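User: For my dataset I need records formatted as: sequence, then C-alpha cells, nothing else. Please produce one.
Assistant:
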Amino acid sequence: MSDLGKILLVANTFPPKLGGSAVVYGNLARQSGGRMIVIAPREDYTDGLPIIGWREHDRTSAYPVVRPRLLRTVMGDADPADALGRMWFIAGDLLQRARLLSRLLRIIFREGIVSICIGEIVTSNWIVRFFHRFTKVRTAIYIHGEELLLEGTYDPHHERTIKALRAADNIFVVSGFTAEAVRGLIGDDRLDRIHLIENGVDTHLFHPGPQRADLLATYGLDGCFVFVTVCRLIEKKGVDTAIRAMVTVGQRHPEARLLVVGEGPYLADLVRLARMAGVDHQVVFAGKVTEEDLVDHYRLGDVFIMANRALPNGDTEGFGLVFLEANACGIAVIGGQDGGTSSAVRHGENGLLVDGHSVDAVADAMMTLREDPELRARMGRNGLRIAQAAGWEHKAAAVLAACLDTPIE
C-alpha cells in the first residue's frame, strides 16, 4: 500500500454532516483501505458553529481526518457594488487559501500523497489549478452535476471551473446526466479523463427490517399507508408537489400519510402549504433525524417519493442517493424525471419516474403504487437487488485505480 501512495480528499461537506455528497465521500474514505486521507471543516458554513459530533466521528473512523476550522471563505451577502467590501472579501479569501494550501502541502509531504481530489469545484477549483501547474501531484474532481448548472458571483460563467476541469487528471461523475454537463463545458477532448461512477449504498446500514412501534406511535402512523420522503427541504426536491398530490390521494385513500423527514429553508413554506391545502392532518413533518434512526424512518414507508424537478435557474438533482437507500430497505420509489434521477430510478423496474412539475402525474404514480400491491412488491424486490449490487467497495476501488493510476486488487 505504501508503494502505491495515498489520496488526499478535500471535502467541504463530510460526515457527521448529513447529505448526499457527505455520504458519498464518507463511504469512499471508509472503503479505501487506508489509502485515503480526508481534510474537512470542523465548523458549519451555515451558522459558524462546530459540527455536532465531529470529534466522535473522527476518533472512530477507519481513516485519518484533518479538521481545520474552515476550508473556504464563508460566502456573505456583500453588495457587489461595494468596492471596499469586495476588496475586504478578496483579502480574506486569499488569506484563507494561503492557510489551506500550507496545510495541504504539509499533509502531502508527510503522508506521501500522490493524488488530490476535491469535492466542491465551485469554490475549490483553484486547488486543482495550483497543483496541476506547480507540482507533480495528480489531481481529480468529484462532480455531482447540479454545481455545474448554476452561475454565481464566485465563478461567473464557470470560467475557473472550466480551467480546473481541463487541468484535472481525472473527473468523476455520478450519472450520465452529470457526464453530459461536464462535456457541455469542456467538449470532447477530455473524454478519457471522465469516469462514470454511479453512487452506491451502504447495505450494511440500509436493509429491510421491521417497523419500529415507537416511531409508528410517535407519528400516528398505525394502520396508515405511508409515503415517505427523506431529503433536504429545498425547492428542487419537489416535496411541495407531493403535498399538493396528497389532496387527490387523500380523497381516495384517507388512510394515506406523507412522512417528510429532513430539514431545510423550505420547511416553513411546506408546513404552510399543507395547512392551506387542507392536508395538514395527512402530512407529518419528522424534522431532522440522527444517522442511527434514519434507516428506521425509511422502513416506516410503504413507498418512497421524491418528486424532484429542474428549477428555472438550472438547479436540479444530479443523481438521488436517497432512492438507492430506500431500495436497499426493500421499498419501491417514485422520482422526478429531471436531472440524473434516471440513473437511480429505472422506470417500471425499481420505481416510477414522473414529471415532478405535474401534481396530477405525481398523484397518479402515488395511487398506482398504493392500489397495486403486486407491482409495489415487485419493484421493492427489484430495488433491493439493484441496491445490493451497488456496494461502495467497488466504487472506491474504481476511484483509487484512477487516482493512483494503477489497478487495485
